[in-house]
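User: I'll paste a sequence; please echo it back and then give the predicted structure.

Assistant: Echoing your sequence first, then the prediction.
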Amino acid sequence: MGPVSKVELTRCSFEDIEEFHSIIQGHDESSRVTDVTMTDLTVNSELIEKASDALIDIKEHTSGITFATS
């Protein structure tokens, strides 16, 4: 394992996921998930402005997980 950082996802679209929840979580303090930006993410044709809009659960060992629209 190791850290995940400085990830940018732009113009990603997911359809027909119904009530499926996703999780963003680091493994431990040495394997954190940090500085992830999702820009223009759509789920079921809806533009996402925050994690809960996309049924994304942000758990422990994370920081700087953001959602943006252009």
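The chain has a mean pLDDT of 96. The chain has no helices and eight strands.
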